[in-house]
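## Example record

The block below lists the input lines for one assembly entry, exactly as stored, with component labels intact.
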Amino acid sequence: MLAGKRVLLIISGGIAAYKCPDLVRRLRERGAAVRCVLTQSGAEFVSPLALGAVSEDKVYQDLFSLTDEHEMGHINLSRQADVLLVAPATANTLAKMVHGAADDLATTVLLATDKPVVVAPAMNVRMWEHAATQANIAVLKDRGVTVIGPEEGDMACGEYGMGRMSEPLEIAEALTSFFHDGARLSGRRALVTSGPTYEAIDPVRYIANRSSGKQGHAIADALRRLGSETTLVTGPTRLPDPPGVNVVHVESARQMLAACEAALPADIAVCAAAVADWRVATEAGEKIKKTPGGEPPPLKMTENPDILHTLSNAGNARPGLVVGFAAETENVIENAVAKLARKGCDWIVANDVSPETGTFAGDANTVHLVTADGVEDWPELTKKAVGARLAARIADALDAAHD
Ligand code: C5P
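Predicted structure tokens for the full assembly:
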């Protein structure tokens, strides 16, 4: 159900806009409060009067209306909503969203929002299938926008194909599960490690690796989106802290382990950090001086703690589900299967990080999920999509353990 949820329905100019009064009714039947923003071309297809009557609220149309700005402002429209639903979302509106255009009230609200955005596209089949629209949809999905439909069927233009807006009932159902999914991990505690570690040689020099932290941060973000109370323990990266996540910044492997132990108990642990296996045995207290003609300093290394192994073997404090990563450049699956046993974790996400794959710095990742039940080969996905899929798999596993 949608009880207590505030939906800001943004209606752009497609013929499917005529279904919006019905959509408002379906959403309200489920307990949602609905407020409408209508674009200029949307108003060609559906009357503000009808929308105002079924929503029992004012319909907002004008960015520069003094009364609208005075009472509501585009920032407040987003602030007072739990979700922004764009239905119908025309090819033009989707393109504007991708580029951050803000030339009317609807697109300005969409640019100014930090709330979840759901779109229900509606357009002619060739517009939908055009590479530009498909690329725009991919960008929006990657930014976390949820896409409902479109469906295949007869179109208002007389053609048949993909591009019809999903029926109001379908959209209302999808929005209901959107909120339900958002609570799938509520009450659960998750711990994620991410990024490289820096192992100091002296106060100014360190040994590090090429991990960007993109995958680990995406996983923490995805677990939080499913409602878990999430702690991200990260080595130095250039990434912003994911919103709503408790982020602990560390440098060395030993600091990372201490921060992880401090974050226990946890139901879920995902170790995505590229932890340095070794550190310099004795860190110099002062900067090591270069003497002309002198020998380079010998660097004696010692082993770092293995965080994944430690968490997997933590007795009563062991998180219920422990997931490790295996970054390999050869024999990816064989090494991952061996690692599962050696570390004592439940799952291993294995990926090929050979330089030619571009995995380390890039946004895409092709992974294999290795569990006691076998190996799942996932298609190439963005790191964000890998995070979302892994978080959903984790929620499934915890649900199954609970049943
Ligand atoms: O043994 P290897 O480094 O290949 O194992 C990779 C997995 O173990 C990753 O999940 C990584 O985050 C974790 N790991 C760790 N602490 C270490 C080394 C690896 O948590 N010191």
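The domain at 189-402 is CATH 3.40.50.10300 (Rossmann fold). Residues 193, 253, 271-273, 275, 277, 304, 306-308, 324-326, 339 surround cytidine-5'-monophosphate (CB under 6 Å).
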